[in-house]
Amino acid sequence: MLIPPKYNHIEIEKKWYSYWMKNNLFKSIPNDKEPFTIVIPPPNVTGLLHMGHMLNNTLQDILVRRARMLGKNACWVPGTDHASIATEAKVVENLKKKGINKTDISRDEFLKHAWDWTDKYGGGILDQLKKLGCSCDWDRTKFTLDDDMYESVIKAFEILHKKGLIYRGHRMINWDPEAKTTVSDEEVNYIEEDSSLYYIRYLIEDSNIDLEIATTRPETIFGDTAICVNPNDDRYKEIIGKNAIVPICNRKVPIISDNYVDLEFGTGCLKVTPAHDINDYNLGIKHNLETIDIFNEDATLNIHGMHYMGKDRFTVRNEIEAELKKNNLLIKKENYIHNIGRSERTNAVIEPRLSKQWFLKMNDITKPAIDNVLKDENIKFFPSKFKSTYKYWLENIKDWNISRQLSWGHQIPVFYYGDNEDYVVAMNKEHALKKINNFETGKKYKEADLTQDNDVLDTWFSSWLWPISVFDGIRNPDNDEIKYYYPTQDLVTGPDIIFFWVARMIISGYEFRNEKPFSNVYFTGIVRDKLRRKMSKQLGNSPDAIKLIEEYGADSVRVGLMLSSAAGNDLLFDESLCQQGKNFTNKLWNALKLINGWEIDQKKTQPIENKLALEWYNSKFNNTLELIDKNFDSYRISDVLMSSYKLIWDDFCSWLLEILKPGYGDKIDKKSKTELIELFEKNLKILHPFMPFLTEEIYHNIPNSNNSNPLTTSPWPSKENYNISIVEEFETSKEIISQIRNYRKEKNISFKTSLDLYFIPNDNQLNNIEIIKKIAIIDKLEESTKENFDMVTSFIIKNFEFFIPLEDGFDKASEINKLKKELDYNKGFLKSVENKLKNENFVNNAPDTVVEKEKQKIKDAEQKIESIKKSIAELS
RNA sequence: GGGCGCUUAGCUCAGUUGGUUUAGAGCACCUCGUUUACACCGAGGGGGUCGGGGGUUCGAAUCCCUCAGCGCCCACCA
User: How many Å from the CA of A526 to C1' of B27?
Assistant: First the structure.
């Protein structure tokens, strides 16, 4: 079989992905095997693959592929999210370009545009995931607005409403006047911005005292319904209970007192505008104040704004400043820096607004989510530090505002009838009609009498059902799929959506199925650039994911991402990581070429060093496998890769292959090659979750490999018993060989020149040349004493003394110097251990095993010192 | 303002309940090397006393206190 000199990732990745798909290797249906399920965090349907997706999905693929190899029924459910706000914003923007205003078209017309947009740009991200090698069961692909998914969301609303958990309330919400929608607290960014603090004069009724009031929002005076001072403020005690006159509109408002007001800030006087400030709203409720809403939906002033009606709030701010100044009501204006809330999506300044919204009561349904994560650890977080964040949020949870003033999404299944305050919750109009007409009122309603609520549900209200709804567990709670696949095993996601999504899925899991949605949550960090900056379009520091795959190959990119991504840690991405991954693929490819190049000599018997080396690597492999399995179980994925990387690069390639490598013109014995290939195949298996394409390709190029089955579905190596002492002994061998290499380097002796190595028999040591030879893996080693040679250089390893005879060019002084240095080191070491043992407290208090270890150290060090001294004496 | 966390080689990080030699890894760096798998390589090497200070202990990178610096989350003061 001819192996190409270079690994062609483009061709080979295409080949194997279509092979896997054609043979349905990622397909899962319920069977009698243990299920292993992951639901993908559904990316935005019209989004494009970025580094964060790559990291996240590579991790999921690694977990899924390993589970598959462990013989589990692995099921990775892919899908996309409709992402109401983001998608609707894009569609609106796109329509604007075409000269269409969203407000000018009907809901149905708008939805048609949105679907066209989705059909055109949607789902591309899933194809990109295939390029990355993701082994999802693509037949299961879901979209949150698919009919069945849609119905599940509505059904969930119905269930919760029936339980009395959903209510309609008046709330101060964050209003985005540009998108004309509410945004959740989490979607508002507070940014320090330059602003002004206006000091405005308010007159007091029946008094000649003026009040100075500081505000950042003079345009809201039309909504003022009180003036508030601190009850302990001596400056204002006398005027409490009187009325103040609001400038320009000349309305009388009461002067009230409340501890909320800060004596130090501004003038200690606060104008209260309950309709437009959350704190004022709370004051309004407390003091039973009137609420005057002065804004229209787009934050222009309404009729209460008098002559400013129809003008934008910021325009009014400027104009009112002028009017106040003209009337001598503006005392001063100061520069002022404060936090201004802006919509994450449109960047519009958020307007606090009183609005009718749908809410989900959270307090009643969070208990299992708290207990099962924090008390019982039925759900584990990796890293566990995120439990504190989770805990804090759940223990301070507020009711969830689930309605959004958008069209793209699941329309709220509430149908108003009669005087428009009565409503029913139903899957559709038909059901709704049936429901009301069943009432005892006797009144018969027609379809035309019903109006569905115009709002849609928060996107997260569909996402929080995802692990259940993808298996249709909301509509059909007893179906075979949900019973088999739920609860799922792992969730891989970012800590930034721990509240939005993770916590809510846990809540919904217990609420709808009385069972956790997943057992383990792996939190990935944020992918940043080398300078720790977030990847962003503006900075242009975000690499094109697909280009990276094309340039380096999917395997290399996957390895690059995994090399430095401990759970929860941010990943400082740099292309050099992909290069490192590519170097590794090259290394493996070349190992294949090397092994394939070795011809077999059928008659040759296995040399002892081959036997020893293979035995050693087998032990080393199993020793590492043990560690790998352990690290997999604790989700230390980058540690797993690192151990495999070192095992294969250093132990397999640099040591094992170098020992087995036949000499010039030589061939390898059959036994060695057969055993070697077995080990090589095992290497491929542990690497397969990380580098699926390369390993699959190599696997099918191994000579003598009888296995025509794909690696993807081959069994994970089972842990065999191994002898740890073999592994340890080999470390000694490595040391001996390293010493010889050092010696060659020091003396500038080429590798072509062979050296004789001798071993000094020592009665106190294991005095068996065979054992020493075994340890040294060097069959030229002979037993001798230094007296037989004029000059030697010696080294001591694990209390065995070895030496190499010297012929000429021997620098006695430097040799002695070298030994003296070693002597000093050992003496220093000895002294530190001796001091420890001299300390009576240590000897008396430390456990016996620890003391014993220290004593042994002394013995070893003393012996070594003796040997070195002897060598020095001999040279002098 | 409230809460959580971090500070170990040039960089990114390990370091499990305090005790395997005088702290590890990968990358980077330096030196040497074209021996027919690989220069996308090989061999070798330098480099940290674990942010500062104090304490507990026979013993601390590991526990406690304190100072300094950094980061994240929540709330957001007219």
Answer: 20
What is the rounded distance in angstroms from the CA atom of residue A792 to the CA atom of residue A749?
Answer: 15
Structural contact between residues A323 and A258, judged by C-beta atoms closer than 8 angstroms: no
Enter the pTM of the model.
0.88
At A621, list the tokens.
Answer: 């492999």
Find which nucleotide's C1' atom is closest to A260's CA: B77
Report whether A571 contacts A527 (CB < 8 A). yes
Residue nearest to nucleotide B18 (CA to C1'): A846
Nucleotide closest to residue A273 (CA–C1'): B78
Alpha helices in A634-706 (DSSP H): 637-646, 658-660, 670-687, 692-699
| B44 nearest neighbour residue (CA to C1') | A742
Q: Dump strand ranges (E) for A263-376.
A: 269-272, 330-343, 351-360
**What ipTM does the predicted assembly reach?**
0.93
Closest C-alpha among A128, A122, A157 to residue A142 = A122
> What's the CA–C1' distance between A862 and B10, in Å?
38
Identify the segments of chain A with pLDDT beneath 70. Answer: 1-2, 184-187, 345, 420, 439-442, 704-707, 746-754, 761-788, 790-792, 794-800, 806-811, 814
- Identify the residue whose tokens are 């009718």: A356
A272-CA/B59-C1' distance, Å: 65
Q: What nucleotides of chain B have any atom within 7 angstroms of a protein Cβ? A: 3-6, 11-14, 19-22, 25-28, 32, 35-38, 40-45, 57-59, 73-78
At A205-239, the pLDDT tens digits run: 888 888 899 899 999 999 999 999 988 888 888 88
Task: Render pLDDT for A619-675 as a digit per residue (tens, 0 to 9).
Answer: 999 999 999 999 999 899 999 999 999 999 999 999 999 889 988 788 999 999 999
What is the CA angle A175-A496-A463, rounded to 5? 70
Q: Please, are residues A31 and A480 in contact by the beta-carbon 8 Å criterion? A: no
